[in-house]
Design a protein that fits this description.
It is a single chain. The protein has four helices and five strands; from the N terminus they run H-E-E-E-H-E-H-E-H. With 136 residues, the chain is of the alpha/beta class.
């Protein structure tokens, strides 16, 4: 089991860990760096190649590292998803957190997906650990 508390509480190393995972999984990945990022921690490009055609999808990734407090990520920590996704011409939003999302945030992201044609995914601490544990 991964202890995310081993990462500093400022979230920088957590964002870097998530970035490296996306790179290992073959995504073109851009980290927005240190400082105010307005919820835009990573921009990830997914390239899908099929026998008939190729397709590219852009994702906005927001990383929330609350392992030190143990609190859930609430809907107040993820505010402008629709505007942020549209501002970079992305098609999807991924929340990656070292703990877990609140039920209100899960509902909010489901509503955003349904009403705004934006794909949403949540990787909680367990999903992230499972992805990190896979051979690459």
């Amino acid at each position: 089991m991964i202890d995310y508390k081993e990462l500093p509480s400022d979230g920088i190393r957590f964002e870097q860990l998530v970035r490296e995972l996306f790179l290992l999984e073959g995504y073109e990945t851009f980290w927005t760096g240190v400082g105010p990022d307005e919820g835009r921690d990573l921009i990830v490009i997914e390239k899908l190649n099929g026998p008939i055609s190729s397709y590219t999808r852009k994702w906005l990734v927001s990383c929330k590292h609350f392992a030190h407090s143990g609190k859930s990520v609430g809907k107040d920590e993820v505010i402008n998803v629709v505007d942020d996704v549209k501002s970079i011409n992305a098609e999807g939003f991924i929340l990656v957190c070292s703990t877990q999302p609140s039920s209100s945030l899960v509902r909010r992201l489901a509503e955003i997906q349904k009403n705004n044609n934006i794909i949403t995914h949540i990787w909680d601490g367990i999903e992230l650990e499972n992805r990190l544990s896979r051979p690459h």
